[in-house]
């Protein structure tokens, strides 16, 4: 079977799908992964065929306007307001990505498509080719439930009615935006218009299967989910077995007690240096050794004391188990890696789904209460670090949760599910 995977976004939006692609390939399927050209080498270095999508939409985030969105957008209202101001700039870029997705599919001729939510052209491409497709997501943000709110909605704790309503509102907004893109795209494919467009349904109203790449140990399946919603477990992309750490990292780990990992990915707004200063002072105040990861620009650290080591990056599956605790922004992938390692997590969420995962870590007892990035101070971070590394209840719960997650086989579960869904689509 030939499987096309379409995803777009930051590395966190790409890495789980690379793991899935490798799993599909190991099971004997041919795989092409289409994503931003900035990840071409990453995709191909993992043995997958690459499908070209341009980088223009991602490049907006690298501008001052995009950094302001990250720095100031702390809730749904702020994100919506700032996104709206960028709408005219984004619209032609989104349409171009849809056309490029179709060019990739025409060339590859897949039997099934797995797509990220930003790959909204996929269901219409699948219809044109007469094949099946499935939406796959690391974030449970599409299937309405009374169990939790839409992940970016305000955490008002108003009960099941509010949780379900938050999904209805978002679906209305998304359908309104995507309807315009889809109308012209379908016309270009010579497909008939859709009378009642719903981004979660095929043209005939059939629900699109939705595959969730998270652990039920972290977020159990709600009782009110429909049967077309699946949970497979996390999709971890483990590095090559022959990876060797730099000697400086090995020496540092052997020179003292387990340190604390600190890394915020590409999150830091416009002042990564100030973020690093807060981290360094907090670690020193509590008397902890630390490793600061600066690889994606989230932290900028120089002139560090001997108790703190700066690294570019290292495989999380190798590094995190050697830590006393992990401090990060709460992205879905990094949260999963920290929990799998069985180490307490200190989360400093910036925006989007990050506060949602931060609240889950706290609810599970695997870390202290999160510190929103806007409220981060040396005092607060020092207190959280002390709690994470001395509270035995947190330490034990994190270890227990990690043991549960390590027993799961998320990629293998997803591969088996995709094989079953593809067979169903062939028969329909």
TrEMBL record:
InterPro entries: EryCIII-like_C, Glycosyltransferase_28, GlycoTrans_28_N, UDP_glucos_trans. Signal peptide: none annotated. It comes from the Bacteria. Residues 302-405 form the Erythromycin biosynthesis protein CIII-like C-terminal domain. Pfam families: EryCIII-like_C, Glyco_transf_28. Transmembrane segments: none annotated. Residues 3-140 form the Glycosyltransferase family 28 N-terminal domain. SUPFAM superfamilies: UDP-Glycosyltransferase/glycogen phosphorylase. This is Glycosyltransferase. The lineage of its organism: Bacteria, Pseudomonadati, Pseudomonadota, Alphaproteobacteria, Hyphomicrobiales.
